Amino acid sequence: MSKALKVTPDFPVGLEVSWSPEDDVWLPNPYLKNWLSDTGSLTERVQSLCRQFTLVKLGQGSAPLHASECARLPGPADSYQVREVLLCADDTPWVYARSVIPQTLIDDELANLGAEPLGKRIFNDSRFIRSAFELCEVPPVTVARLNMDITRPLWGRRSKFSLHDQHMLVAEVFLPGAPVYNEGYHHD
To answer: What φ, ψ does residue 157 adopt, rounded to 5°?
Structure first.
């Protein structure tokens, strides 16, 4: 467990927020905008900025889907699994990620994912096509179940990845310890 976590959160944490198309969201900070609109692998970006990268798997399995997730994904909600993780840089959680993945992908292309970052699989497989981003501002109460001291709104993004007729949602929220909120951040 990361030093910054008081207690490992219960699964599922959830992420019930309002999402807007990226073009409809005004961001006052160009540095934050750069992070939110980066189409590369977020896992690789975090890894490049720290000495030690760790993934804390909060859980994976059947969990209720939010209305906005059901609206973006075809088929019945029970044909999906939810996977929630923290991406940590030097023992500090930088990103909370919630992925909604079809059971068929888990049984096939994403089998035996375990504690491996999802991004490592999907960014190394050119068959996955990414949609445009949606952004959200996350009130502290929404992520209170992360058991962190969060006192200000956070920012998140999500996109849909498609492989033929299978679709999954990947949502990422930048936590207070992430450099996205600090324009002057430079890693030693």
So the answer is: -145, 155
Find out whether 64 and 12 touch, Cβ atoms under 8 Å: yes
pLDDT interval class at 152 (50, 70, 90) = confident
pTM of the shown model: 0.91
Binding residues for substrate: 83, 118, 172
149-175: average pLDDT: 93
Q: What percent helix, strand, coil does the chain show, rounded to 5?
A: 25, 30, 45
Pick left, alpha or beta for residue 91 (phi over 0 → left; psi -120 to 50 → alpha; otherwise beta): left
pLDDT tens-digit readout, 66-121: 999 999 999 999 999 999 999 999 999 999 999 999 999 999 988 888 888 998 88
Residues of the binding site: 83, 118, 172
Residue 188 lies in a domain: no
Residue 15 in any domain: the answer is no
Tokens of 137: 């501002």
Residue-number span of the structural domain to which 144 is assigned = 20-177
Number of domains in the chain: 1
CA–centroid distance for 9 within its chain: 15
- Whole-number Å distance between alpha carbons of 96 and 76: 25
